[in-house]
UniProtKB/TrEMBL annotation:
SUPFAM superfamilies, per database record: P-loop containing nucleoside triphosphate hydrolases
Lineage: Bacteria, Bacillati, Bacillota, Clostridia, Eubacteriales
Identification of the protein by name: ABC transporter ATP-binding protein
A GO molecular-function annotation: ATP binding
PANTHER family assigned: ABC TRANSPORTER ATP-BINDING PROTEIN ALBC-RELATED
PROSITE patterns found in the cross-reference section: ABC_TRANSPORTER_1 (PS00211), ABC_TRANSPORTER_2 (PS50893)
ABC transporter domain ranges (all copies): 2-227
Length: 239
């Protein structure tokens, strides 16, 4: 469903992504975990078609920069960027028209209620708090019901209710067969629901583990992370 082959991205002298290869299957939540600067956001931006890169990326079988691919994925950026002069509801209407979403009003109402933005529907983009902007960004990405979902640090800035709700939404989307890629540097935030962990370090994927592998071998993912990133072991919960 999402296939990344030899993804390489260089910014001047910085090799931010160095021949990344991975897949995210339908009904799978993959987490891209790594310390600051590991190259997670760069990878997600390349997949979302926002950066030039070397390699091949396919979304539902289509090269990622094609219209067919863009119709198939939803992207939640690390930093939300609402349109200042549109209201919350107008953002959703805009997306609904652009993607020709059927029954969009019902879907928008459901998303706004779940993200507790329902009473903010008349607020302008520039009047939203950082957390509200993030919630709107999530609603906009999910409204067209994408088959592939790309989330760059989606839980940062959300209140506890929204975090709980977003986790529930992700699990529902996995059950519906979506392929989901979530980047984070906080393993704790994805601990309950990840299926495949891609540990990034210095622009490379240093290790890949499925939950089934971890459960069958008894390996500790957090320990593995610190062994890779620091050559140390720790009992700390936040990576
Ligand atoms: N626009 C840019 N121009 C030059 N270098 C960049 C740019 N964006 C990122 N980099 C560099 O690329 C590398 C990977 O950065 P990236 O933002 O992808 O990491 P990250 O894993 O998402 O980090 P964080 O967890 O801090 O968000 C870093 O060395 C960073 O300094």
């Amino acid at each position: 469903m999402l296939e990344v082959l030899d993804l390489t991205k260089k910014y001047r002298n910085t090799l931010a992504n160095d021949h990344l290869n991975f897949r995210v299957e339908p009904g799978e939540i993959a987490v891209l975990i790594g310390p600051n600067g590991a190259g997670k956001s760069t990878a997600i931006k390349c997949i979302a078609g926002l950066l030039r890169f070397n390699g091949n990326i396919a979304v539902c079988g289509h090269p990622n920069k094609t219209l067919e691919a863009k119709r198939s994925f939803g992207y939640i950026p690390e930093i939300p960027a609402p349109i200042e002069t549109l209201t919350v509801y107008e953002h959703l209407e805009f997306i609904a028209r652009a993607y020709k979403v059927e029954n969009w009003k019902d879907k928008a109402r459901d998303l706004l209620e779940r993200m507790e933005l329902d009473d903010k529907r008349k607020k302008l983009g520039k009047e939203l708090s950082k957390g509200m902007q993030q919630k709107l960004s999530i609603c906009c990405a999910l409204l067209p019901e994408p088959r592939v979902i790309l989330m760059d640090e989606p839980l940062i800035g959300l209140d506890p209710h929204a975090i709980k709700e977003l986790k529930t939404i992700l699990i529902e989307l996995r059950e519906k067969g979506c392929a989901i890629l979530v980047s984070t540097h906080m393993l704790d935030s994805v601990r309950e629901f990840w299926d495949k962990a891609l540990i990034m370090m210095n622009g490379q994927i240093a290790a890949v583990r499925t939950r089934a592998e971890i459960e069958s071998t008894g390996e500790d993912l957090e320990q593995l992370f610190f062994e890779i990133t620091e050559g140390t072991q720790t009992g700390g919960a936040v990576l």
